[in-house]
Structures are given as C-alpha cells and as structure tokens.
Amino acid sequence: MKLEQQPAVDPLNPHGLGDPNDTRLRKVEREVLIPKIMRDRAKTEFCSKEVADFQECCKASSILMVATCRKQNSALKECLTQWYQNEAFKEECKQIYLQERADYRSTGIPKKHRLEKL
C-alpha cells in the first residue's frame, strides 16, 4: 500500500491565496476595491449628513427628485469628492484593504465570515 505524500505547506502562502505580507496591488484592487472602501467610509463616516439630506429629499420628491434635489445632490457630491481627493484618506483606505487581504490570505476565511464568527 502506497501512502500519498502531502505537499509541503509554503509558510509565505499557507492557504494557496498569496503571500499575506505582499503589498503589491493589482489594477482591480487600485481602481475598484480600494475606491469602494473609500466611497463606503466617506458616505458613512464623513458625509452622513449630506447622504441623509439627499435621501430625505428624494423620498419627499418622488418623481421630481432630479430637479428638486439638485442642491442636496451637489452638497453630497462635493463632500464625497473632497474625501476622494484626500491623499491621506486614500492611503488609510489602502492600508485597511491590505490588512483585510492579509487576514484573508493568512486564514483563508473571508472578512464577512470572520465577522459572523465573532
């Protein structure tokens, strides 16, 4: 009887998902995933008043919201743009992404599943 030999586990790539310490970014990470973190954080942490004002206007205006809510939409866009152009904020979001990716590569468990277990 022949025993199958288990392949050695690469300490830099424990789950076959890439090196957890690698900080290089792919194009999709730079152009899609990190901007998504920026957008979500800007809306919830820094522009929440503008988001709420725009949502209230849209609920009250219904079909006419395009014309009626221009002022609130402009305020929201201005707030979001300010954060999108902030290099320190962009770097902070990049570090958040890299930490989440490193955690995933180390554990093999996606963030949403790690949060569910807590």
UniProtKB/TrEMBL annotation:
<dbReference type="GO" id="GO:0005739">
    <property type="term" value="C:mitochondrion"/>
</dbReference>
<protein>
    <recommendedName>
        <fullName>COX assembly mitochondrial protein</fullName>
    </recommendedName>
</protein>
<dbReference type="InterPro" id="IPR013892">
    <property type="entry name" value="Cyt_c_biogenesis_Cmc1-like"/>
</dbReference>
<dbReference type="Pfam" id="PF08583">
    <property type="entry name" value="Cmc1"/>
</dbReference>
<keyword id="KW-0496">Mitochondrion</keyword>
<keyword id="KW-1015">Disulfide bond</keyword>
<comment type="similarity">
    <text>Belongs to the CMC family.</text>
</comment>
<feature type="region of interest" description="Disordered">
    <location>
        <begin position="1"/>
        <end position="23"/>
    </location>
</feature>
